[in-house]
Amino acid sequence: MKKLSNFPYLLLVGASLFWGGNAVAGKFLSGALPPVTISFIRLAISVLIVSPFLIRLFKEEMPAFRKHFKLLLFLSITGVIGFNLLLYWALNYTTAINSALLNSTSPLFIFLLSFLLIGDKLELKDFASLAISFTGVLFVITEGSVERLVSLQFNTGDLIMVLAVISWALYSIFIKKISGKLSSFAIFGFTLTIGFILMIPAAAIELSYVPVKGIDTGEWLALFYIGVFPSVCSFLLWNRAVALIGPAKSSIFLNLIPVFGAMFAFFWLGEVITVPQMVGGLLVFSGLFISSLSKKRSVQMVEETKGY
Predict the structure, then answer these.
(1) What is the DSSP string of 129-147?
(2) How many CB atoms are located within 10 Å of the residue 67 CB?
(3) For 14-60, what is each residue's pLDDT tens digit?
(4) What is the per-residue DSSP string for 222-283?
(5) Average model confidence (pLDDT) across the chain
(6) How many domains does the chain have?
(7) What region does 143 belong to: left with phi over 0, alpha with psi -120 to 50, or beta?
(8) Which of 15, 176, 244, 264 is the most buried (most CB within 10 A)?
(9) Rounded Cα distance, 286 and 130, in Å
(10) Domain that holds residue 179
C-alpha cells in the first residue's frame, strides 16, 4: 500500500475514475430515490466512514470551527450540498454523459466568477477559452440544433447541471478565503458534517411528499459507491498526488472525469454518445487546454476537485 501511495499518476487516474462514476451512479438511482434523499444517504455514508477522524478533529479544532463557522456554512451549502444535490436533480431530466461534459466546464466558470466577484484579472486567452467552451456547452444543451437555440428550448436537466457547476465554482472561489487558516482535511470534515446535519430535515420533508419507489441490491451498491469512492477515496487520492507532484501537473488529470463518465454511462446505462456531445466535448476540452497554458490558471484549476 505504501508503494502504491508513491505513484502519483496512478493515484490521479483512480481519483478521476471514481469521480467519473458519480453522475452515472446518480443517474441509476434517479429512478428509485428523490435527489435530496440520495444526497443525504451519500453524506451519511461518508460521515460514518470518517467519523473516527471527525471526533478527534472537533476536539482539537473547535476554536477554529467557531471562528470560521459562517464561511464553512457557505462552503457546505455550495460545495457539499448544492453541487451534488443539483447534480442528482439534473439527472432526472438529462443523461449522465451530458452531466459529465457540462461538469468539465467548472474551471471556466471559476475563472469567470473570479473575474466578476473578486476582480481576478483575465488574459485574452482566458476570454477565448471561455467563448470556445461556452459554445461547446450550447452544443451539448441544444443537441446541436440551431432551432432549439433560437427558440430557447433547452433541456431542463442540462440547465440544472449548469447551476450545479456554478455552485461548485462559488465554493472554489470562496474556499481560498479559508485556505491556510484550516487544514484541507479540517475543511473537508467540518463542511461534510455541516452538510449532513442540514440534510436531515430536508430529507425528512422530501420523503414525506415523495415516496421511495424501491431500493434493491443495485441501488444500495450505487449508494455505497457515491458515499465512499467519489466522496472520500477520490479526495484522499487527489491530495496525496498533489503533495507528490504539485497542483499544476495534477490538474491535467481532471479532464479524465468526463471521459470516464461517458465510458461508464455507455457500458452501465447503455447511453449513446451522440455527435453533438462529441463536438461539444471537443470544444470544452479545447477551451480548457487554452486556459491551462498559463501556470497560474493551472493552479486555480486544482480547486475544482470533486472531493465532496
Answers:
(1) HHHHHHHHHHHHHHTT-HH
(2) 13
(3) 888 898 898 899 999 988 899 999 999 999 999 999 888 888 888 88
(4) HHHHHHHIIIIIHHHHHHHHHHHH-HHHHHGGGGHHHHHHHHHIIIII-----HHHHHHHHH
(5) 80
(6) 1
(7) left
(8) 15
(9) 10
(10) 4-304
